[in-house]
Amino acid sequence: MVVVASSEQNSHIFIVFHNIVNSVRIFNNKFYTKDKINEKFTFFGVNELYEKQITEDKGYNTIYEYDLDIYNPFLQKRGYMETSVYLHVYWNNLHKDLDFVGFCQYDMIHNNPIPILDENTIVIQSTHKNIVAFGKWQNMMCPKVRNLKFLLDSYNKHFDKKFTIQDLSGLPLSLWQTNIYPKKVFEKLCKWLEIFVKDIYPWSIQEPWETHWGVIGGYTERAIALFNALEKKQGMKMICWRLDHRCGHGPKRLAVERFQYNPKHWVNQFDLNIHSTFEKTIDLKQFDESKVYKVKEQSLQENVNQHTYIYKENKDNITHLYLSCNGEKSKSIMLYAPKEEKNIFKKRYLAIQENLDKYELFYSGKAYSFWKGLKISNIYIVNRKENKVFSWKIKVDE
Question: What is the DSSP string of 254-296?
Answer without folding.
Answer: -----GGG-TT-GGGGB-SSEEEEEEEEEEGGG--GGGSEE-E
